Please model this.
Amino acid sequence: MRGVTVAPGAHDDDLTLLDDLMPWSVAPLRFGRSWIVAPDVRTLRSRWDRLVAAEGAEREALFRPSRARTPASAVGALPGQRTSTVRLAREAGPCPEPVRVARGPFDEQWLLPDHRLIDTARPELWRVAGERQLFAVEQGYVPGAAGPALLVTAALPEGRSPAGRPGRIRPLFRRPGGREPNVAPGLLAFLGKRYGHEVDALEWLAWTVAAARPSPSGCRVPVPADPEVWAAGVALGRELLDVQARGALSGAKPRLPGGRRPYVRAAVPARPVALTYDGGDEALCLDEGRISPVPEEAWEFRVGGARVLEQWFAHRTAPPEPGSLESIGPAAWPQEWTSELLDLITVLALLGAREAERAAFTGEAAGREELRAAGILPPPPRARRPASVLDHQEEGPEGQFMLL
Model:
């Protein structure tokens, strides 16, 4: 397969920053308290019930106040969420309906979408979440780290990198319903003329997933001169996109070929404490529990320098502080966690098998000067700001309404 040809004298610094090509980005969410997110819904409902059953100082201690949020904070509802806006100190109602979020790379969990609980919720992201939306999550730069520089999820992402370095969240669309692509004005028309066909936002994102590379100043994206290189990158990127987004584009859950699909060979114990890998048998071991076949590419798949499977396991087995809301959880390993682990292994195996192919898209033939000459760079300041949303009301503190 052909890769992108490096222009004479070109270096990574000559590649255009994704920040200029997808100008609107949002910093990661900051939950502020870990008990509001969990791998299963039952745990969140139990934690909420425990919180609202407490009163006064006990409720405040369970809540875990911060500078941004206390039980006395007055805040509006998150866009699209029907949650109470009375001060949490007086709350006695039912648990907010949990929503699916991407807590980390390939780790979808559940969140209580209550603005009173979240230190920094980034409401501008909630306004554009939903049908057709995809979120590109730029990973924090880690020198020498293997793995993709850009991940895509259909779930609202927390956006934090495994190594703790800040990344950026870039929605594919600036408005709800898949309207107004979040790309530099004129870029899609420029690409369409360059490659001889109309290029839409999804095609651009597919290329970006295949070709983006990390740098200390952020992801950089080559813009190839050869239409065949572009077409090959887009074809690969569409496959990677669908796998990363768990079949959100094709409507079919990612699957490995028959004979390579992972199965539980020995039941996962009630409380596994160690995750190991047996390369000889291609087996993932959770204490005496065994899942196989698990390709080495899945076990070794890393993002931001961290092994994804180890991070996923740690989020479900780390010992909580006794007496805290975090200590409320399943009494034993739930069956749905095993099902989710099988799905995760499948995703990582499919991506790992294409990682070398993805890494082949390097260098560029068209640089920033050409994009400047075309009027695409620099993007106008308005492109870096969220779009105005004026067609709906959102509930403010204590039941008041605000028009945005």
Residues 263-319+333-358 form one domain.
